[in-house]
Amino acid sequence: MLLAEHVSFSYGAAPVLNDVSVSVRSGGLVGVLGPNGSGKTTFLKLLAGLLTPQSGRVSLDDLDLADIDRRTLARRISVVPQETELAFDYSVLEIVLMGRYPHLQPFELEGPADLDIARRTLAATGTTHLEQRTFRTLSGGEKQRVVMASALAQFERAPGTADTPRDDAHSTRVLLLDEPTSSLDLSFQLGTATLIQELNRTHRTTAVICTHDLNFAAGLCRDLVLLRDGRVVASGPTDEVLTPDTIGAVYDVEADVHRHALTRHLTVVPLARL
Q: Consecutive 10-residue runs of the chain (274 residues): their mean pLDDT?
């Protein structure tokens, strides 16, 4: 389980998160929603251990993130940012191999086992055919899948290597995604949702997704966390959290929420600003 307990954080004098508590069960699919400035990206960075709470605690399987060394933590938690900027134009295969860094010693080069793992994660994300392409030539949706492949490569232990403490096959492994469908067309949005569901089902991957898209979250996530002004307004199962009242409280918008006749997912239609 990934757990945030009474977490607060500020940049200088500006408070960003205030007494936020959220639990993410192993194998969960959790969406984090909220308007601009609500603290979503900062919260994701705290869950990743990239920032340290000024009060409160973030833990993974009952171990404080601050007590986990960076290499071990990188085998357990991986981040897919909204945009990936590179100093050089690496090939797709090189990008995915970069995900092997937590498993290598200083100055150690990737070996055949790392190459096999990279190619397996390319296959898992449907990007094998892009292996020799340069990253900058890819479309937005293709880039997102390649970065996910690299993130998955962080998790996999090479055959014949020993587990480190808290790094065994039954440990929670978390994929944190920041706006994974930003600027993607409908086809790639659907493909991204399907890929996240497949990784969650077949690779034991716990996923936390920050997004502005309420309908994307409703169709994908089993649980939601709604933030406003750095505080949790509501959290819990999607069907219980995504209501006209909570949407009004978070976004100042009157909305119709109904179950789609074909997909059976909740659908949100904004009607007017409150």
A: 96 92 96 95 96 96 93 93 82 95 89 94 93 92 91 81 52 90 85 91 90 94 97 97 96 95 92 92
DSSP annotation of 157:
P
| Interacting residues of 144 by C-beta distance below 8 A, sequence separation 6+ | 80, 180, 184, 188, 192
The Cα angle at residue 64 between residues 62 and 65, in degrees rounded to 5: 120
CATH class, range 2-229: alpha beta
Record the pTM.
Answer: 0.91
Task: Let me know how many helices (H) and strands (E) the chain has, helices first.
Answer: 9, 12
- Show the CA angle centred on residue 137, arms to residues 135 and 138, nearest 5°: 70
Could you state, in order of their start, the residue ranges of all structural domains in the chain?
A: 2-229
